[in-house]
Amino acid sequence: MPRGVLPTAEQVAEVKTKFLQKLESEPPADAFLPEDLKRITDSDLWITKLLEAFDLDVEKTLTKLWENLAWRQSYGVYNINESNVNQEYLREGSIYAHNKDKDGKPLLIISIKKHSKSKNTDDLLRLVVYWIERIHRENNLEKITIFMDMTGSGLGNMDIDFIKNIVNLFETKYPYVPNYILVHELPFLLNAAFKLVKTFLPAKAVEILRVTTKKDVTEYVDKDNCLALWGGNDEYEYKFV
């Protein structure tokens, strides 16, 4: 899919230099994570992706990078692992990573049929962060396609606040990550609710949002990477590994 203009080496260097100067002159009260600082000093990839996400605006990128580092430190992103996320949610497979889209980007699958409003939103979001960070350790800050699988879901599964929270997580904490947002097999009953969801999506999310059915999902995920449930060839059933 078409992407924005790539940042220049000068823009990347400007963000990096200004960041390191600020770090020296105004260090944060809680030190940023060494793994994150290494990501900035040893590579241009993260800053490049952030500059793309913020339309090459150097000052905005600098501000957002600082905010992001503070959040990652307070959230303890590198300490989240399979032993300290909600075990029930981890094992039921309402959120998991499996296969790739046609661009070769990993799929983060959110099974709406398995969702209910009684679930703890903070635990669910922590699980989303777990999967993003796990994918990024394996694929070096790769973009991810968020696959909202609505197959078999009903009004009882629709939770506007939960979807808002996921969108907000990507918009504020991982703005460089989404490749596509695929909403698959949206039931007719949920059309009105989904129209409401679209009204609070940021413009960049609307640009990459696609509603798919069994007939056209292969435009974005080829048949071998599509679960049998979606009309594809993959007989995989989630089991946590």
Automatic annotation (TrEMBL):
CDD domains: SEC14 (cd00170). One of its GO terms (cellular component) is endomembrane system. Residues 82-238 form the CRAL-TRIO domain. Pfam families: CRAL_TRIO. SMART domains: SEC14 (SM00516). PANTHER family: MOTILE SPERM DOMAIN-CONTAINING PROTEIN 2. This is Motile sperm domain-containing protein 2. It comes from Drosophila madeirensis (Fruit fly). The lineage of its organism: Eukaryota, Metazoa, Ecdysozoa, Arthropoda, Hexapoda.
